[in-house]
Amino acid sequence: MEIGVFIPIGNNGWLISTNSPQYMPSFELNKQIVQKAEKYNLDFALSMIKLRGFGGKTEFWDHNLESFTLMAGLAAVTSKIKLFASTAILTLPPALVARMATTIDSIAPGRFGINIVTGWQEAEYSQMGIWPGNAYFGYRYDYATEYVQVMKELWVKGVSNFQGKHFTMKDCKMSPQPSKEIKIVAAGQSGRGMEFASQYADFNFVMGVGINSPTAVAPANERLVEAAKKAERDVGAYVLFMVIADETDELAQAKWDSYREGADVDALAWMADQGSKDTKADGSATAKAINLPEGAVNFNQGTLIGSYAKVAGLLDEAAGTPGTKGIMLTFDDFLIGLDNFGEKIQPLMKTLRPLLRPRKLQCLSAQTPRYFSHSMRRAESPSQQPATNNERTTHFGFETVAEAEKEARVAGVFDNVAASYDTMNDFMSLGIHRLWKDHFVRSINPGLSTTTTPSAGWTMLDIAGGTGDIAFRLLDHATQINNSPASTITISDINPSMLAEGRKRSLATSYANSPRISWLVANAEKLDTIPSNSIDLYTVAFGIRNFTNKDVALREAYRVLKPGGVFACLEFSGVKNPLLDAIYKRWSFGAIPLLGQLVAGDRESYQYLVESIEQFPKQEQFRDMIKEAGFVVPGKGWEDLTFGVAAIHKGVKPVEKL
């Protein structure tokens, strides 16, 4: 489950009250909010778009920032959290918004998405002379459908000739394309809104309901799930709640009572007038729901009020509601509220995995350290947890987890170790990994002119190569040994934090800002942006053991390689000598996690990494997997390094098989 924050792009956040915290929006405020959210390992931050406020004594939302500009700035001062800007689709053409999104993606690769706002407040648009008339309420989702289709064409193909009722493109071009699919968010509450979300969005935000009734959202979730089933898509419900918490239930309730007593009636009246103009709104539509009298002071968001422990329990209930895949939070006071959430609420939640907690809390809540003998027993007797449902399972270290969960947990590990990745490999290999990598590259001999890779240079793809350690070596060898300055490489990683570290390191090389290197956030099991039969060399070093479906990744490697192209993998493997194997395991399971805690403050990530080595197929098994993917393997299929602590595996795509 993901948790995010709905940041206050307008003054006073989401409380229309003279008694609530009063503040103006600013980049500095939102920077502090999003950096706190990132510190506490929240998954995303979303900003709305608001073009006219409600007035009243509080001048509610009369002061607003612009969403895309704000999120571009926040992209530059964050490294992990996903960011969503909102586009009011009546104000900007889709081709321009597609380019704006790609620009922010270049600042925060793989971390950006767009919230589609069709608009319910006529005055926002009529003040600028762009309101198409109230008939728009009847066709706004048709308009939004074409809008999204144009953007997706440009992101995927780089050109659009879309011909629709509302938009006509004529050889409309856009480059560059985003590094990863731009996610689309919707927030339709009406039947038509949910139908649109089920067909064209990746997530749909659903308004929570009532006071301390986290499961009351179930009917709305069910409507979204049913719509998604009809569309044959998996669209998650992300539920919006306001958190008002304090040390005791009584203190929290007193805050809420005060906010309601101070309701800005003039601003609320203006909001109600605007909502009444949507003649096509059904009973579930935003324009209707926000004006219900019992909670209009905060737009009738689902509101969770109580002590920190009580709110944690309520959030767990919300997370357990069928159809809920995420939660988006607002607070009465964002800076204080986020600190309270991160330090006092989140640690009490049962639905958040340990890897999603802040690192300092992770260390405090860790189990008693496993010393050498304890760790060895765990290594020799991995516990297998039975699946609790029909989900496909895989291994996360020695744990058995759902496939969908593994990807998120592996991402958490590499978010934590990105900056200390070489230090991690030093621990894992006693420093020898640098020699292994040099030998690995020499054994490939990249850049050599052959019949399948002529002097035009090699097109190379380094998977799970975020820090650039292998890629820089490959280019050095191609250039300096084989005189192939035309050889190029794409460095691909599923984890944007690893790629960010690689980009930073590239600045200290001769390849800084070079067209010979490109960066791609992608899952090795689904390299949609890499054409078939286009790559001369596919490398993966110390990465494939973390893949959820290794066989799928191998088949994808086969697809993208040219006939005659080479698959080359460097990975930790199995030590053959029993005595040496026992010594190495004692080092791995005893010392490495302890050193990880002492040096990086992160025992759990390093514990997972050594467990992942133990779970990786041994040399013969992995060779057979490579052959099953279609490759021809040279010789016995692998080369052991340092008694088998690591091994190099290679496969060649047959020339005759297209």
UniProtKB/TrEMBL annotation:
The keyword Oxidoreductase applies. One of its GO terms (molecular function) is 2-methoxy-6-polyprenyl-1,4-benzoquinol methyltransferase activity. It catalyses: a 2-methoxy-6-(all-trans-polyprenyl)benzene-1,4-diol + S-adenosyl-L-methionine = a 5-methoxy-2-methyl-3-(all-trans-polyprenyl)benzene-1,4-diol + S-adenosyl-L-homocysteine + H(+). GO terms for biological process: alkanesulfonate catabolic process; methylation; uracil catabolic process. Pathway: Cofactor biosynthesis; ubiquinone biosynthesis. CDD domains: AdoMet_MTases (cd02440), Alkanesulfonate_monoxygenase (cd01094). Pfam families: Bac_luciferase, Ubie_methyltran. GO terms for cellular component: extrinsic component of mitochondrial inner membrane. It is a peripheral membrane protein. InterPro entries: Luciferase-like_dom, Luciferase-like_sf, Pyrimidine_monooxygenase_RutA, SAM-dependent_MTases_sf, SsuD_RutA_monooxygenase, UbiE/COQ5_MeTrFase, UbiE/COQ5_MeTrFase_CS. It is found in: Mitochondrion inner membrane. S-adenosyl-L-methionine binds at T467, D493, N523, A524. Its EC number is 2.1.1.201. Residues 1-319 form the Luciferase-like domain. The keyword NADP applies. Methyltransferase required for the conversion of 2-polyprenyl-6-methoxy-1,4-benzoquinol (DDMQH2) to 2-polyprenyl-3-methyl-6-methoxy-1,4-benzoquinol (DMQH2). Component of a multi-subunit COQ enzyme complex, composed of at least COQ3, COQ4, COQ5, COQ6, COQ7 and COQ9. Belongs to the class I-like SAM-binding methyltransferase superfamily. MenG/UbiE family. This is 2-methoxy-6-polyprenyl-1,4-benzoquinol methylase, mitochondrial.
